Amino acid sequence: MRALKLISWLLIVSLVTPGCSAFRSSTQMLSVTTDQADAEIYINGVMAGKGTANMPVKRNQNVQIMAKKPGYVTVQRSVGKSMNVTGVLDIVGGVLILLPLFGLLAPGAYSLDEENVSIMMVKE
Q1: Domain assignment of residue 98, yes or no
Q2: Residue 111 lies in a domain
Q3: N- to C-terminal Cα distance for the chain?
Q4: How far apart are CA 41 and CA 76, in angstroms?
Q5: Of 25, 112, 104, 106, which is closest to residue 77 (Cα–Cα)?
Q6: Which residue of 4, 42, 113, 121 is most buried, as measured by CB atoms within 10 A?
Q7: Does residue 124 lie within any of the structural domains?
Q8: Is the dihedral of CA 48, 54, 60, 66 positive or negative?
Q9: 85: burial class by Cβ within 10 Å (0-12, 13-18, 19+)?
Q10: What are the C-alpha distances in Å from 75 to residues 58, 61, 112?
Q11: Is residue 81 domain-resident?
């Protein structure tokens, strides 16, 4: 009887609780700096600043960065994403109770590979 009550309780909790990743922010702050204070910084095609830029970006998508300044070579970088600890915990929880696997569909299951990007500009 006690085991049935415990199983019922776990079933109820699993039905109302999606994976932990569903509760994490869908964005992550990306910081980009260049060695040229007036170099234009673009993040995913949007002008984000000159010299330094901070911008929230979706954590489950790759990010494209471009820095340009007249007389200097335009620099392009890409920042990837990886599954984070919360996503791994969703997998572990999904093995025990199926529902946490749905957390893997949420952006919170991932993190950017780099949060702070430094770019050195080279003269043409």
Answers
A1: yes
A2: yes
A3: 78
A4: 10
A5: 112
A6: 42
A7: no
A8: positive
A9: exposed
A10: 22, 20, 19
A11: yes
CA distance 105 to 36: 39
Give the number of domains in the chain: 1
Identify the bridge partners of residue 112 per DSSP, sorted by sequence position. Answer: 81
Structure confidence by residue, pLDDT tens digits, 68-80: 999 999 999 999 9
Amino acid of residue 62: N
Structure confidence by residue, pLDDT tens digits, 5-59: 766 665 555 544 455 777 778 899 999 999 999 999 999 999 999 999 999 999 9
Q: Find the length of the chain.
A: 124
The encoded tokens of residue 22 equal 């569903």
Helix (H) or strand (E) holding 46: strand 46-50
Query: What tens digit of pLDDT does each residue of 79-96 get?
Result: 999 988 777 777 676 666
